[in-house]
Write a structure and sequence with these properties.
This protein is of the alpha/beta class and 226 residues long. Helix 1 crosses helix 9, helix 2 crosses helix 4 and helix 7 packs across helix 8.
Length: 226
């Protein structure tokens, strides 16, 4: 593993599509630099859970926005045990279920929801000495001044295999769902999934987690030592 340099303050933005290894890599990185970890995708999932619980119409942006504004989010940023609660209810398991997964892209596409959560994300970043932030628009929107911007990617087949192994789901069905979400997230009008012009792309298709973490740490060390 790459030797770790722990700067007094640093922000690392990790973007990329589902199944590219963002969560595992980001949590490991946060632990290595003795920092905190923010999963912005889980924030959108928690709001989506609240929207579904409310019975709001997923095709009604105003109704979704109202629920989002009324939802009290509790966000745990310990990389060893990140957790989320919405209106006092622990939603760690629920937000990873198929119902939320199928609806989160629609909720995340609502501009008012994105603006609300981006403000919250930026406040968390501003208060943290060292933080790894993962999502889809971190380098381009949430933390454009991040010390290091990484875009993790992998082949569709590799991403589907990884996600299926995690969820014990059919690989072909998983790949189809990942492709659906990629299309929705990259084509939305507000803050679409895209690689920032100054982000470093890391293709994790043939890489193990240790290799990816070591590679990103090497890049971070170069950034903070220069």
């Amino acid at each position: 593993m790459e030797q770790v340099v722990r700067p007094e303050r640093c922000v690392v933005a990790v973007d990329g599509p589902s199944g590219s290894g963002k969560s595992t890599v980001s949590r490991r990185l946060a632990t290595q630099i003795d920092g905190i970890y923010l999963d912005t995708g889980a924030m959108y999932r928690a709001v989506t859970w609240a929207v579904l619980q409310s019975g709001a119409d997923l095709s009604d942006p105003e109704a979704i926005t109202k629920v989002a504004q009324e939802t009290d989010l509790s966000i745990g940023t310990d990389p060893a045990a990140p957790h989320f609660a919405a209106n006092g209810v622990n939603v760690d398991a629920a937000i990873r279920g198929p119902e939320v997964t199928g609806a989160v892209s629609a909720v995340a596409a609502v501009p008012q929801v994105r603006a609300q959560l981006v403000r919250l994300q930026q406040a968390i970043i501003a208060a943290a000495p060292r933080i790894i932030v993962e999502g889809r628009d971190i380098a381009s929107v949430v933390a454009p001044d991040a010390d290091l911007k990484v875009y993790l990617t992998a082949s569709a087949a590799a991403r589907a295999q990884r996600r299926s192994a995690e969820d014990a789901t059919d690989v072909k069905a998983t790949e189809a769902d990942l492709n659906r979400r990629d299309q929705l997230d990259s084509s939305r009008k507000t803050d679409p999934l895209r690689q920032a012009s100054d982000a470093v792309e890391v293709d994790t298709t043939g890489m193990g987690i240790d290799e990816v973490v070591s590679h990103v740490l090497q890049m971070l060390n170069s950034k903070v030592s220069s």
